[in-house]
Design a protein that fits this description.
- 2 copies of one chain form a homodimer.
- The first copy, chain A, folds into 2 domains: about 60 residues, Arc Repressor Mutant, subunit A, CATH 1.10.10.10; about 140 residues, 3-Layer(aba) Sandwich (Chorismate lyase), CATH 3.40.1410.10.
- In chain A, strand 2 and strand 3 form a beta hairpin.
- A 6-stranded antiparallel beta sheet of chain A has the order 5-6-7-10-9-8. A 3-stranded antiparallel beta sheet of chain A has the order 1-3-2, covered by helices on one side.
- By secondary structure, the first copy, chain A, is α+β, with helices and mostly antiparallel strands.
- The longest helix of chain A has 13 residues.
- Chains A and B meet through helix 1, strand 4, strand 8, strand 9 and strand 11 of A and helix 1, strand 4, helix 6, strand 8 and strand 9 of B.
- Strand 8 of chain A pairs antiparallel with strand 11 of chain B.
- Chain A binds a DNA duplex through helix 3.
DNA sequence: AGGGTTATTATGTGCACACATAAAAGCGAT
DNA sequence: ATCGCTTTTATGTGTGCACATAATAACCCT
């Protein structure tokens, strides 16, 4: 008989995880309610609540008021990616970071850009193209549109030394954003910049961030072949 | 004077977000401690704690005991990806899901597989190759290795109708795993299976899952061009 | 001044209790 | 049986308190 007590929420969580892995509680099963578990574990209900809530957040449990808590039938693997500043990413690999501004201009963007950013088609936007390097080797090509009516300070920033990637994080807060990962073939111009064969398979990160209703910036990062975005689940 | 009260943790969170966003609290700034905020907001310290803890989890605040809570200097965008069962992903797009088993065998894997999975090189593993289709069009190619000593039941499963992707989720729990996203050029064989030109840029998801110390399965999913993995931040 | 010990302090957590809320289950009238 | 109302129940959350813990700040001794 297991009369062990689990007095803190991490241990309760561990025990619940153990039961799920040991298949004592099968996917889809309804598990005992918080009050009963609290008695069994010899702790307060709020402790059990904290443990179960945390497991529900990570997708391992499904909880519904009155219906109770059940083991997720098909646990959705939730991978949390840390999209860091590119400089940090490179430096963490122990490489020397390099940055090169390719172009910077104030122009009316193509329609698909103004459309996505929901700005007036004729409104001029700050357009920045730059290259990030690791140990002098091209690492990622950055193409960015910045909405100057939301980030006016960007107009007085040259982005010659400091990448827009980094400058915006400090100076342009955002409320939310969309991000998409995909794979694209390198167009000739980009292939040349990244110094890779044309039509190479590049890893692309597209990001569009918003400050409440207004779009802040739209960026497309194209990573040289070999790039891998890793995380744990 | 703002004498409004914020009685629940979501509203406290909203107010803190508003202040960060309105730049009342700048990146790097130390914010008032929980007790003071509780007084200001007219709620209990635990309510403030819950709100701040949640914001720290999402990377917007940095908290350290005794040192206090400060606004993250460079908020790391944490994108949470839901790696769902491929069938669900396709059906959610309103497309018809199709599945085709290409090969299934029990063989000793190449060294880089047994190496990554930390199994004996000569130990036979279940090797499954399959194709996922959306509206009869190739969607993703799945190449998988399953460790039969961890999932013996897999040996009696043919994977003719039900994909290993789905079967394993139900029958093989895992404790943790690594996942990597990258971009690769389609090799001729894969290009033919996916019915795309050779050297097309494919989106790749590599996943290796573990049950405690033992590797469960290693899978490589190659998505046809056009695939985008989306999420919000 | 320097180095090591102690005190202080902000966050982290646990507990008991209360009430809120969503949703299933039961019930009753038609 | 079906629709609509009420009850029940499990989770969700707020409060006040206590103590734990980590890390800084203060102190003391040399």
């Amino acid at each position: 008989m297991n009369t062990q007590t689990f007095r803190n929420w991490q241990r309760v969580q561990e025990e619940v995880l153990r039961r799920i892995h040991a298949r004592e509680w099968l996917p889809g099963d309804l598990i005992p309610n918080e009050a009963d578990l609290a008695i069994e574990f010899g702790c307060a209900r709020s402790t059990v609540n904290r443990a179960l809530r945390s497991l529900a957040d990570s997708g391992l449990l499904d909880r519904r008021r009155k219906a109770g808590t059940r083991v997720a039938a098909e646990p959705v693997a939730k991978a949390t990616l840390n999209i860091a500043v590119i400089r940090h990413e490179i430096e963490e690999h122990g490489a020397r970071y390099g940055y090169m501004l390719i172009a910077r201009s104030l122009v009316a963007p193509p329609l698909h850009i103004s459309g996505a950013m929901q700005t007036q088609p004729m409104q001029e936007m700050l357009h920045v193209r730059a290259l990030h390097l690791a140990d002098e080797t091209p690492y990622a090509f950055e193409e960015r549109w910045v909405n100057p009516s939301v980030v006016p300070d960007a107009l007085s920033e040259g982005f010659e030394k400091l990448s827009a990637n980094e400058w915006l994080l400090k100076h342009a807060p955002y409320t939310h954003g969309d991000i998409a990962f995909s794979s694209v073939q390198a167009e000739p111009e980009v292939a040349e910049i990244l110094d890779v064969p044309p039509h190479s398979a590049l890893f692309a990160i597209d990001r569009l961030t918003w400050d409440n209703q207004a779009s802040v910036t739209k960026v497309c990062l194209l990573f040289a072949p070999g790039y891998k975005l890793r995380t744990q689940i």
